[in-house]
Design brief:
The protein has 255 residues and is of the alpha/beta class. Helices cover 33% and strands 16% of the residues. An 8-stranded mixed beta sheet has the order 1-2-3-4-5-6-7-8.
Length: 255
Amino acid sequence: MLREDTVFGPIHSRRLGNSLGINLLPVNGKICNFDCIYCECGWNADGRGDTVLPSAAQVRTALELKLRSCSEEGIPIDSITFSGDGEPTINPEFPRIIDDTIALRDSWYPSAKVSVLSNATRIHIPEVFEALRRVDNPIMKIDAPTDALVAKINHPAPGYSLSRVIDSLKKFDGDFILQTMFLRSRDFDSSEPAQLQAWMDIVRELHPREIMVYTIDRPTPEADLTAFTQSRLTALVQPLLDEGFTVQVRGKKEQ
């Protein structure tokens, strides 16, 4: 499900409300340093028809036009969200684009939040980290507590290190949102006790201001993946809730 435009929506997000999306990757392709088995945009190999990244100037122009149009039509925007067809921090002009977006948000929708959905693989780069510190909602992903399980779920590019991601996330001093996908496949289960305990230990170490726990909600490139229900997800994270963590749970609707 590739996006059609650099700026798209707004669409309703389970986690962010009325969300105006920004895709910093090709409009007719997919580039990501993850190749997640659950990605709604499909496999990386199926989205290589376009490799042109939008420039900061192009993003600014498209965003200003969209914000003006939404404002004139009275369309509410809760979040301006960097998501799109892959990892947004791959775009080399990401820091400048963040600054332009904040300025445009302040002009047109000052109550809207600027959010970035990232797999956290590039936050060890100082200029990327500093740009993420400037947004309202830096939403960073850890789907699994070990490199081996990350390899099964996310298929990261060579060089991925969970320990480096964790060390980099510590620099936020808890001022970020942690996002984790829970699901089950033929050869792993996010709810398996040892894996779940190890993930919760990472949460306790990083102590993010909020945790977004969710499950698959759209068609996935890998077949035979199982979603978790709302009640099951809530039960899995109950120890964190009991400890006072703020956890947003978005599970599959009960039958």
